[in-house]
C-alpha cells in the first residue's frame, strides 16, 4: 500500500485535465457540454446524479473532485466536501433528520445549528453526559461527539459513545477536526460518520474555508452528494485549489504540529514549579485513561492544547508577551496561534488560553513561551508587589 503523502499528492490525478505539475486554479461556474451530440442525455433519462460529469460548479468542479479523490485515499471512506465545517454539519443533520440529538461539549457553531433545528423542527436536544437524558434516544436519532475536544485537546471515549448510540439504534458522528488523520481514525471504532472542518488542518495555512463529511456507505455518500446540490453548499472553486495545494504537505505538517504540541506540553508539565502564573495544562498527552492509547495513533495527540493562568488579568496580558504566537482565533495553520478564549467562546473560563501549535522550530516556541510566562509573572505578581511597596 502506498503512503499517505504519495496518496495525497497523486490521489486526484485521475481528474487532472491538463498535463501540469499542479492543477490550474479553475474558477468557472459553467462547463461546456460534450461536442459529441451522441453523448447528450436528457435529464429525465439520466438516472442517478453523477458528479464526474462536470456541468455547473454548484454540482461539481474539477479541483473539488480532485481534492475529494485525494482525501478519500487517506480516510478510507467516501468524502464529500462542503463550503465550511458548519455546512458539513448542516448537511449531516439534514440527511439524518433526527427527532433527537445527543450532544455534549462541542464547537459552539454546531450547538448553534442544533438550536436552529430545535426552533424550526422541534428537535429535542439531549445531554450526552447524562444517562437519564441519553435513555431517550431512539432509532434514527443522532449522537454527536467531538474528540479531541475544543479548546482543551482532550480525548473522549469513541468506543463507549459508539456502542451507546448503536444500542439505541441511533447513528454517531465524530467531529475529528482536532485530530485529523493520521492522528486518529474514528472508523476503527465503528462510527457512522466523520466530520472535519477542513479550514483547520486540511487547509493548514489559515487561508481557506471548507468542511467535509466522510462515510463508508456508498448509498449514503450518493445521497449526501445529491443533497449538496440543493443545499448549495459545495466547496468553492478557489478554496478547492487552495486545498489541493495544502494536501501535498498535509502529513508533514500535521505530524510535526502534533509532535511540537506534545513537546511543549511536556516542557510545561515538567516545569510547573518554575512558572508561578501557570495553574493548569490541558492536553490529550496528559490523559492516562486506557482508551486514549487506542485513539491517539502512535501516540500522536491534537496539536491544540490549553492552559489556565492564575487570573483573568494575566491571561489577557499573556498573548502580548509572545513573539511567535499570533493572538488570533482558529487553529490548524502552520503559524502558531494563541487565543484568550473568552473573546470568542462565551462559556470559556476567563483564565483560559488556547494554543494552536504550528510547524516552527519547537525549541524556539518553548523558549518563547518560557520567557512570556516569566514576563507575565514579573508584570502581574512582582509588578503588583512593587506597587504595594510604593
Ligand atoms: C472550526 C470548527 C468547526 C466549524 O468549522 P468552519 O470551517 O469554521 O465552519 C467545527 N468543529 C470544530 C471542532 C471546529 O474547530
UniProtKB/TrEMBL annotation:
Signal peptide: none annotated. It comes from Scheffersomyces spartinae. Pfam families: Cys_Met_Meta_PP. It comes from the Eukaryota. One of its GO terms (biological process) is transsulfuration. Belongs to the trans-sulfuration enzymes family. This is Cystathionine gamma-synthase. The keyword S-adenosyl-L-methionine does not apply. The modification N6-(pyridoxal phosphate)lysine is found at residue 200.
